[in-house]
Amino acid sequence: MDIWKLGYDSNNYEAFNLVEGDWTDIIEKFEGHSLIQDWEPMRLKVYEIAPRSDAPTFLGAAPVFSERAVHHLKPLINNFVEILPADFEREEYFIINVLKLLDCIDYDRSKVVRFRSGRIMRFERYEFIPEVVHQQHIFKIIDIPTQAVFVSDEFKEIVIKSQLKGFTFEGVWSSK
To answer: What Cα–Cα distance (Å) separates residue 92 from each residue in 44, 63, 78, 89, 161?
Structure first.
């Protein structure tokens, strides 16, 4: 079993931005809490023109997926996320609100860089607790819910098999 940090190929595919406001204004909304009840679709625009993508660059804590990506990935991730509509003039895209927050890090074996306050700045090495991440196909780490989204081998395999464009995967841990 491997765990991958989900990313976006911003060098080769288009990027999105908000029509109004700034990412820093909304990042805290995506801390693993349900947003569906009061959701107003965020208006998106193309920030950088490039070939179209199924995962345009957006915000690490809130991935954006094309309708095609949602179609292929929904059976795997539906129990872990809210699929929130975006307001985009060209075609349908969705903001993925990852609800699955896991207390899954073995801090004794991980390498963590912290701010002076003790808050986590970043991980230099992740060590996951295998029984906690087993069968978790998309999730966030409870201590850093606005920094990154992690996915399973199965998620990565669906993206590759479906030929979805724009996704990147950084291998961050293996149980092997």
So the answer is: 11, 14, 18, 8, 22
Residues 6+ apart with CB under 8 A from 119: none
Residue 120 has φ and ψ, to the nearest 5°, of: -75, 125
Rounded Cα gap, residues 36 and 136, in angstroms: 22
Model pTM score: 0.94
At 80-126, the pLDDT tens digits run 999 999 999 889 999 999 999 999 999 999 999 999 999 999 999 99
What ranges in 78-163 are assigned the alpha helix state H?
A: 130-133, 153-161
Q: Count H helices, E strands: the chain?
A: 4, 12
Distance CA 148, CA 96 (A): 12
40-52: pLDDT as tens digits? 999 999 987 899 9
Two tokens, residue 95: 């903001």
Kindly state the tokens that stand for 127: 């060590």
Residue 173: strand pairing partners? 3
Chain CA centroid to CA 167, Å: 10
Backbone angles phi, psi at 37, to 5 degrees: -60, -45
